[in-house]
Amino acid sequence: MTERPNVVVIVLDSVRADRTSLSKHSRDTTPNMADIAAEPDGRSFPTTITHGRYTLPSSASILTGKYPGDHGIGYGKSTLDDTIPTVAEAFTDAGYRTALVSNNHFVGPETGLARGFETTTVLPDDAVGIIKTAGIPTVARWLANIFDHSAGLERDKYRHSGAYLQTSLVRQQLDAFKLQSEPFFLYAHYNQTHRPYYPPLRWFDRYDDTFEMSRSDAGDFSMDVHRNLVEKVAKGCPFTDDEWWTLRALYDAQLEYNDTFIGQLYEEIQRDFDETIFVVTSDHGEHLGERGALGHKYVLDDYLLRVPLVTSGLDVPSTEGPVQHSDVMRTLLERAHADSSFVDGVDLQTDNRKFAVTQDGPRDLEPIYDINPNFEAAQFFPEAEGSLPQRTTVRSTNYRFVRGHDGTDALFAIPNEKVDRSGTELDVARHFDGILDNWLSNHRLIDTEDGGEDDNISDTAKSRLKKMGYLESEL
User: Please, which pLDDT band fits residue 76 given cuts at 50, 70 and 90?
Assistant: First the structure.
């Protein structure tokens, strides 16, 4: 075992565990991730639970090792407090070269999540910015393969994929690391698995045998769902069977396309570097109609909170029990002989956790009720009316307990999270209630009074995030 291995962490946006090849999904959407997990030093953790429901709080938890209530990002404010240490700072202090490559403004300098990284690259979405950041040769190659790696001759820039460009930036950073003798920590956030579900044209027809729409109609439908998601939810997701098949097929095709880059990068790193720990995960999952939800806004269940986690070279025991991203970061820092004392996770080399915790702030459902005054919010959380309360979930191997901090709670058995058992399995509910009380004695609830969620984000970044479906009353 190398004294201080290199560390590569790749985060794919909006990937739910049950749509990957690591689960029992009927489609082989992530064969490269599955192959990595099957290596002698590979691992897959089937019960990986995120700290937050969307990118900003979840990514802040990954990069600080703290829960949303403790780091405060994503609900009451948009910028990380300077007093909160970051994982990148710990790696840097331990003598690592560090780099962040991102295609999401939530994971970058404007939110403070780039603090501690020696080099930060955020891929823009405007043509001039892309050329300046990626370079003319890279952009030229992308354009020459625009049908293989993007939407072809399409004027709507939000139908184009940036995965090829993002991977080129990651490769450029890896090339820079080859010239240095110190170990490195590379963190890459890929946004291309986020909606809209619009895979490159060569991949668009990957699963078209499952739906009847033409390519053009399928693309238009997916973009309509993306841009009018709240309206669709308010109206009860009134889709035909063919529309559902189309939406899910495009999501899966987009995921499989991105998985090709995971395989390429893994092979290149194995070839070009000495011992390197390789980690692939997601910041959160995605709803595709379950319990009347779309995207990652409403229901705190496994579709949204259980994500894939694959590692190579981490050298830890396998476990079916719950794992959280803070555990992974704690373990990586331990392997690097870096300070991990600030991370609220366990060292997977020697320990495991009995339960995972996710926090989410209150959510006003007024945009939904403006469209449909008769909407039933109880489909998202029992007894909810007009809004969703601040909620904290405790997930064990077999149960999820959800406390609404308005005095309500719910208990669900895994995998069926439709029936609230809090009134019938009283002892189990009391058990988790006690666990949560104890946990909250050492952690903060989310404070939603401390400023606005987008107070420090630039107008350019706000525009792009809104196009991506963020900043739509995220609170």
Answer: confident
Closest of 293, 366, 361, 281 to residue 326, by C-alpha: 281
Q: How far is CA 103 from CA 69, 323, 352, in A?
A: 25, 26, 32
Return the H-helix or E-strand segment holding 69.
Answer: helix 68-71
Around Cβ 398, how many Cβ atoms within 10 Å? 9
Contact predicate 468/194, CB 8 Å: yes
For the chain, domain boundaries? 6-355, 363-467
Fold of 6-355: Alkaline Phosphatase, subunit A (3.40.720)
Q: In what order do the strands lie in the sheet with 119-122?
A: 42-44, 309-312, 276-282, 6-12, 184-190, 97-102, 119-122
DSSP classification of residue 420: -
**Rounded-to-10 torsion of CA 68, 336, 122, 148:** -110
Max Cα–Cα distance, the chain, nearest Å: 63
| Global model pTM greater than 0.90 | yes
Q: Mapping DSSP to helix (H, G, I), strand (E, B) and coil, where does residue 9 land?
A: strand
SS3 assignment, position 127: helix
What's the rounded Cα separation, in Å, for the pair 142 and 210?
29
Q: What is the pLDDT of residue 462?
A: 53
Q: What is the CA radius of gyration of the chain?
A: 21
| End-to-end Cα, the chain, rounded Å | 45
Buried b or exposed e, range 377-396, using 16+ CB within 10 angstroms: bebbbbebeeebbbbbbbbb
Q: Distance between CA 308 and CA 357 in Å, rounded?
A: 17
Assign 208 a pLDDT band (cuts: 50, 70, 90). Answer: confident
CA distance 161 to 383: 40
Helices (H), 191-301: 201-204, 215-227, 229-234, 241-272
For strand 97-102 and strand 184-190, is the pairing parallel, antiparallel, or unpaired? parallel
Q: Which is it for the CA torsion 10, 15, 21, 22, positive or negative?
A: positive
Task: Write the Ramachandran bin of 124: left for phi over 0, alpha for psi from -120 to 50, otherwise beta.
Answer: beta
- What is the pLDDT, as a whole number, of residue 458? 55
